[in-house]
């Protein structure tokens, strides 16, 4: 890790299970990687399992919520006090958590792209107006470009 990267534990329990957030610098942009770590629980629980690729900041909250929702939906409610995260991870593996995070991140990215698309001018004249080009200057353009 370089100085622009770091790991921060977001949630942990007495059973040793953690949902971690690792910050990653990619070409000057901040991305975040989620990990599930059940190393403090029963033998056979994966340690530091990545939950998909790194996420953009606007995708991170939805990815975290999806991982936690997946855990709540998959945990064994018959276990006394309900099944712990580390035990659920050991029982079902990381794939359901990865799928949930990826679906949430994809939806968040699509929503962010839709917002950006609504803001982007669709014609050169609109782009020029948004940039502050006077209408008088735009009248000199051929009809195809206005």
Task: Provide a concise account of the structure shown.
This is Nitrite/sulphite reductase 4Fe-4S domain-containing protein. With 146 residues, the chain is α+β, with helices and mostly antiparallel strands. Helices cover 42% and strands 20% of the residues.
Strand content: 15-25%
* Structural class label: alpha+beta
Q: What's the CATH class, please? A: Alpha Beta
Point out poorly predicted stretches. 1-10
* CATH architecture name: 2-Layer Sandwich
SSE topology:
Elements: E1 6-12, E2 18-26, E3 29-37, E4 49-50, E5 55-56, H1 57-74, H2 85-92, H3 95-119, H4 124-130, H5 135-138
Helix pairs in contact: 1-3
InterPro entries: NO2/SO3_Rdtase_4Fe4S_dom, NO2/SO3_Rdtase_4Fe4S_sf
Protein name: Nitrite/sulphite reductase 4Fe-4S domain-containing protein
Domain Nitrite/sulphite reductase 4Fe-4S: 38-101
Structural write-up:
- The protein is α+β, with helices and mostly antiparallel strands.
- It has a single domain, classed as 2-Layer Sandwich (Sulfite Reductase Hemoprotein, domain 1), CATH 3.30.413.
- It has helices spanning 57-74, 85-92, 95-119, 124-130, 135-138, and strands at residues 6-12, 18-26, 29-37, 49-50, 55-56.
- A hairpin with a 2-residue loop joins strand 2 and strand 3 (29-37).
- Helix 1 (57-74) packs antiparallel against helix 3.
- The longest helix has 25 residues, at 95-119.
- It is elongated.
- Mean pLDDT is 73; it is low at 1-10.
